[in-house]
Amino acid sequence: MEKLLLTSKDLTALLGVSKVTLWRIQKRDPSFPKCHLLTAKKKLWKTEEIQAWIKNLGSINPNEGEC
């Protein structure tokens, strides 16, 4: 059974990034899904929103920005 909500630990493992990089993505990418606070320090993300964000990344032109 797939998780409906992801912790930051789940998310860093899924994306293959560190906690610092996850924080940077959240700050720099307005399309990144917003987290939901379970407690003051516990953030959760909806799995379906993260999957949609990842899918959208794949649709970006891979040659964009190349010289």
Written description of the protein model:
The protein is built from three helices and three strands. The chain is α+β, with helices and mostly antiparallel strands. It has a three-stranded antiparallel beta sheet. The protein starts with a strand and ends in a 9-residue tail after the last helix.
Short description:
With 67 residues, the protein is α+β, with helices and mostly antiparallel strands. It is built from three helices and three strands; from the N terminus they run βααββα. A three-stranded antiparallel β-sheet has the order 1-3-2.
Instruction: List low-confidence stretches.
Output: none
Count of structural domains: 1
User: Helical stretch count?
Assistant: 3
Q: Which value, in Å, is the CA radius of gyration?
A: 13 Å
Could you give the order of the helices and strands?
EHHEEH
Assign a percent range to the helix content: 40-55%
Tell me which oligomeric state these chains represent.
Answer: single chain
The end-to-end distance, rounded to whole angstroms, is: 44 Å
Major beta-sheet overview: 3 strands, antiparallel
Report mean pLDDT, rounded to a whole number: 88
Q: Give me the side-by-side strand order of the main sheet.
A: 1-3-2
Which SSEs are present, and which pair or pack?
Elements: E1 5-6, H1 8-15, H2 19-28, E2 36-37, E3 43-46, H3 47-58
Structural features:
67 residues, alpha+beta, three-stranded antiparallel β-sheet, 45% helix, globular
